[in-house]
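Course exercise 7: structure representation. Students receive a sequence record and must write out the corresponding structure in token form. The form below is the worked example handed out in class, using LRRCT domain-containing protein (391 residues). Read each field label carefully; the graders check that inputs and outputs are placed in the correct fields and that the protein name is recorded exactly as given.

STUDENT ID: A-19
EXERCISE PROTEIN: LRRCT domain-containing protein
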Amino acid sequence: LILTADTCCLLVSSTVQLGWLDDLSRLSSLTFLDLSSNCLSTFPASLAQLANLERLNMSSNCIQTVPSNVKFMKRLRSLNLENNWISTLPSQLAECENLKCLNLKFNRINFVSMLNYLSGNYIEYLSTDQLMHIDKLDLRRNALCSCFRLPSSCFDQLTFLDIRDNWNVSTVHLTNLEVDDRRHVYFLVLDCLIVMPVPLHLVFIDISHNNFDSLPDWICDLPQIECLRVHNNRLTNFSSIAPEDKITKYFLNLKGLRHLNVSFNRLTVLPAMDANVERNRVNVLRLSSNRLDESIMPILMKMKRLKILDLSRNKLRYFDDSALTSLSLLEELNLSSNELTALSPSIFKLPALQVLKAHSNHIKSIPDLSLSPTLQVSLILTKFFRLQSDE
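STUDENT ANSWER:
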């Protein structure tokens, strides 16, 4: 049942006509009700009489309070109160035992005990001593304090956490939580992320746009991680532990890693790769805007499954190796904005290469582009030097 702002009355059947919200209580079998985008200033008390209601959408109104008799809506599974004027919630809401999705985005809340979708409020901290049977928690664009900690004993089913765009947060404690799907903690100012126990089933993590000097050590213990995004931080090392230990970790342990983005950091070295090149499964590697030079070449040559390699904005003086042509799957190579003076002919022998970017270097001559049977796009021109072909 959907009642919009331009609906004067609703014909439910040929004999029953509704004209007032209080009449909705007559629809005892109703399971879904949409009252969004109206001008409601109060939460209709009559809705609590809809004992079979499972989904209720009252977003984009002017509601300021939620009545205590909401506790009678025992079958309610989803309640959408997004974009209202709500500042507090009744404690009785916790008695809605089947409630799994509570959307309170863009209200005026600064303290909560009931949690779910709460982005765009003024929340500084969380406080609850009740078990919360929810699987998703969205706290984006709030005012969370510098040390964010979830009451671990209250979120036994949480699988999704999003605390982006909370500019005060610098440390996050997630203990005794099984957040095994995705964790969104980017666009913060984090320099510390503590997760216990290690989420062994995690496949994706994004901690980009933070203040990490090194990666959290527990990341190298994630056996199923496939995508790791840590770009736009302050990384000088992959780990804060001793250098000799650092070399034996990370790439060596992350055997399922497919996508790695560490662009826009301060890296000068890369961790060692597994001596068995068949175990190195990374196919997308983004290293742009670091401080890397040609010393990383031996490590790159062990990454035989690379399809995309971005080395732009580094300090490479040459890009060549006797094993370069062994990167037989490489389709895209970005060497722009380095210190290259020439391009190795071996680059044009890469059997799958389709895109080559090498602009903004010091290149004065290039090999015959026709040597590459697959190259489709090449950006090698620079306005500072006249290129001469080797033909």
